[in-house]
Amino acid sequence: MGTLRSAQWYAGQDRNAYLHRAWMRRGVPSDAFTGRPQIAIANTASDLTPCNAHLDEVAASVRNGVYEAGGIPLELPAVSLGETNVRPTAMLWRNMAAMATEEMLRANPIDGVVLLGGCDKTIPSLLMAAASVDLPAVVVPGGPMLNGTFRGSLLGCGTGVWRLSEEVRAGTLSQEQFVRSESSMIRSRGHCNTMGTASTMALVAEALGTVVPGVAGTPAPDSRLLEAAHHTGRLAVDMVGADRRPATFLTKASFHNAIVALAAIGGSTNAVVHLLAIAGRLGIELTLDDFDRVGSRVPVLVDLQPAGRFLMEDFHRAGGLLAVLRELRDLLDPEALTVTGEPLISYLDDAPIWDGEVIRTRAEPLVAEGGIAVLRGNLAPDGALIKPAAASPHLLRHRGRAVVFDSIEDFHARIDDPDLDVDADSVLVLRGCGPKGYPGMPEVSNMPLPEKLLKQGVRDMVRVCDGRMSGTAYGTVVLHVAPEAAAGGPLGLVRTGDFVTLDVEARRIDLDLPADELARRTPNQATTTGFANPARGWERLYVDHVLQADTGADLDFLVGSSGSDVGRESH
Ligand code: FES
Ligand code: MG
């Protein structure tokens, strides 16, 4: 092992080295500061992020592993984002969490880091931070909750809420039964057990090479998670010895494999913005088109809610990500390495499928061509996404009259109005929900359908929005429209009554309007007054600097890496 980064603080006999060591001693072994790797445990445990509340126990196992391998474990509390509580949307704070973790890793005497995340934004923000500070880093995903069941059938996190609440509005489920299902849905520690964003990002992080292969998807209450955490603590020490930093093993090939995995698991559309942002930190040229090119012909092999039937506990039992990737071995880039130093594909030889209902074979996929389709057109010049596997086949090619809403409040105020001029063929358009407009790009694109249409039995409609949607949601939803209305995108020019054409096969989303008429239009005042205009604080910084969804919605000045050097002393 060469000289450790932490030796810049601890080595020598001078006054400064004294200061750095003396305050850190407090019972740690006397040789702690002479050549032993200092391993931060970036821990997003928080009572207000219930999906991550158990990570203190995971951290304790990591500590044991670090000590055992000769390192010194140091817990670093990280900004924690709970998807269900944090307003106006956890996404507004993802870049702030990433910036805070990046700066604290750089500012402190740290040689490597174990990243503990779970709930949606936590793994992405930790990986963005680790990429920009470029110290050896490895993720332990906190793992999903156990399966929920209600009235004899599986009840998945998020997906069940959307489904049951529509049933209440349609009059087929009582309020009382609805409320009673709460504790059936959330019955253990861990993150959402559907193939929502948390599950997706844990698995995608493994496909990317940042998790010990085979670990992602281990349920949060499973002892094997603690075993893996212990092992990962040891590995972090080895990674420092080998100088295995993100810049040394994360390449375009890693992202290629992540996109294949994202498609095969039927993963969340949110993974697109997160992967673009992580790649941006690494200086890797990744574009929206890579997602369509690499992912859109990949079969969906995993039958998990929201696209399918099962939940993460079933997925883990059935063989997990490695079993999925083994089926798709020829689509993977064999060059891509992992945190262990070995290529991802070297883990696929012994990765059988144990339950062919949950994980399908290549020969019998759940959906022949999955992935995420990237649409363009005069309504989304820089791109928009749709997840065809979660959409209704009969709507993938559709022309309908727009019913436009200028904000989510406008939507809620009018959607259930019996006089609203809307039918099953209408296209619901919601704007002002992009990164700048809301701000933070909330998960509102899967707008609830008008009550009067639900009562007629309508269960899906084409929806178009510049926001995101929950990874647990489903429907024919065109989202992440870029540029967003608040950034001057043409979505801000649509008027109720205009015709919108969606053609997923042709990858088009268009407003049926002559180019000169579109060019003449300006957004009306009701539209623009809805856009966020914060006076101060993070929100102001965010609105002034956030990039659009098609490049990852990072802040412009956070793209790239500053490395781990800090030139100046503190005293
Ligand atoms: Fe935390 Fe779904 S709310 S993972
Ligand atoms: Mg704590």
From TrEMBL:
Residues 36-344 form the Dihydroxy-acid/6-phosphogluconate dehydratase N-terminal domain. GO terms for molecular function: lyase activity. Residues 357-553 form the Dihydroxy-acid/6-phosphogluconate dehydratase C-terminal domain. The keyword Amino-acid biosynthesis applies. The keyword Metal-binding applies. It is an enzyme of class 4 (lyase). Keywords: 2Fe-2S, Amino-acid biosynthesis, Branched-chain amino acid biosynthesis, Iron, Iron-sulfur, Lyase, Metal-binding. Its EC number is 4.2.1.-. SUPFAM superfamilies: IlvD/EDD N-terminal domain-like, LeuD/IlvD-like. Belongs to the IlvD/Edd family. This is IlvD/Edd family dehydratase. It comes from Streptomyces chisholmiae. The lineage of its organism: Bacteria, Bacillati, Actinomycetota, Actinomycetes, Kitasatosporales.
